[in-house]
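Lab notebook page, bench 4
Experiment: in silico fold of construct C2
Operator: M.H.
Input chain length: 357 residues
Purpose: comparison with the prior construct
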Amino acid sequence: MRTGPRISYARSSDGVSLAFTVAGDGPVLVMVPWVPFSNLLAESEIPVLRGIFAQLERGLTLVRYDGRGTGHSQRDVTDLSLDAMVADLTAIVDRVDATSVCLLGQYNSCPHAIAYAARNPDRVARMALFGGTGRGWNAMRATQTQALLSLIEQDWDVFADTAAHQWMGWSAGDAGRAMAAAIRGAATPQIARATFQAASAADVTADLASVTAPTLVLHRRDMTQIPLEASRSLARDLPRGKLVILDGAHPTLFMENPEPVTSILEKFFSDGTEPASGTPGLADVGSGNLTPPSDGLSRREVEVLRLVASGESNREIARRLGLSEHTIERHIANLYRKIGARGRADATAYALRSGLA
């Protein structure tokens, strides 16, 4: 009879108890939990995830933990803020007594990993991020994501079933049912709702420049939940960011073609080996820097055009780039003139035709 991983406990700065597991040998990798869905024991019962954990543990010390309010961590919590989540990550790193760690963040946990890395540059060796942005809302605003989240209010069971099968595939069978059960047991609808509200308000764009760790920003080529431009922008804004585009369209990191993805991460976290073009499972890899200007556009105008195409308002673009709205308006007017655009729709179409979005 198979037994689950041995659970230990850490205590965050506000006294919240956090469940975590440690397995494997090698450089320490902390999987920052994708709250509110972390559920240590239930995840270990899903064959594909169990295999991924085992593969990572062959070359790494894998640390997994349940976020506050979820799984086997303390459930009766009220503070679900970014600072509380970063304090939890701090408590876990301190508890495992690691001099330095690698971090893997997905979706809602990406801002938590970014903030920790920015505030503790000497303790983060390397980092990988999937499905996240510097602003929580940018990763959650897609129509299909909002439609899915609306089910939390309507029917928690339907939400869990829909989310599980959307992430694992509608033909997942027993594995999909197991994931649905893991989600259903991970948190209450009330905690889930409050966690997503806090996540949508998270903003670590000001922290990005302070992250010194080499960082892989992972994106699936044909996924629609997160625009490619959002991942490209994140890689560009991180001083040592590298955009890695994986084959496929699945909105999860490990549920499609998991072996090459896990291999890429194991090599990167073990010794810093970054994937090169031609690596199995890879569609493209780059620094995240802008492509050469076209039609006489300056690099700044290309940058603004990409953000326009991703749906950001003038105010959002100004805030992201640290410029005034008036300056952004001037850049937009200039690039419209150069590409012959009459408005944002024309500009977006141009960006798509030119491979800039």
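Observations: Residues 110 and 255 are 19 Å apart (CA to CA). The two ends are 51 Å apart (CA to CA).
Next step: discuss at group meeting.
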